[in-house]
Design brief:
It is built from one helix and nine strands. With 142 residues, it is mostly beta strands. The strands form two sheets. Strands 2-9-8-4-5 form a five-stranded mixed sheet, with no helix packed on it. The N and C termini lie far apart (90 Å).
């Protein structure tokens, strides 16, 4: 009788608990963009107004508990049609990415045409998790 009770307890424990030998399919935690700042022509002041020929530098402020961020994508699309205008992808170093801010080392040149645009930023980590999308509306002037 005692052996049956022990077997029942063991089976109940096995059914109620996870298998300690099974590998987890953990894809980690997605990065989070906390802020996006844009500057013009190397200035240190945020702006949302650019002239054709200006350079745009972006600063992506972010966190990632897993410290495995791999790519930052920043794209500029037309506000009127969501038509693709320009895209920058920055491959991050293959080390623990604990930096709270990333920037494009070579600023993007605004080539026009004049109009309203949206700058969108996302981050992807090594596991394929994608962050929230951060958007800023900008005006391109002649």
């Amino acid at each position: 009788m005692r052996k049956i009770a022990i077997v029942v307890v063991i089976v109940a424990l096995m059914l109620g608990c996870e298998n300690p030998f099974q590998e987890e399919d953990d894809t980690g935690t997605a990065p989070v963009i906390d802020d996006l700042a844009l500057t013009r022509n190397g200035a240190s002041v945020r702006t949302t107004e650019f002239y054709i020929g200006d350079t745009l530098t972006f600063y992506v402020f972010c966190t990632d508990p897993d410290t495995d961020m791999s790519v930052i994508d920043v794209e500029i699309v037309s506000a009127d049609s969501d038509e693709y205008y320009q895209k920058d992808s920055i491959a991050l170093p293959e080390t623990d990415n604990t930096e709270p801010v990333w920037t494009n080392s070579e600023p993007s040149t605004i080539v026009g045409p004049a109009g309203d645009y949206i700058v969108k930023a996302t981050i992807t980590d090594d596991e394929g998790n994608t962050s929230n999308t951060w958007e800023i509306s900008i005006d391109v002037l002649e």
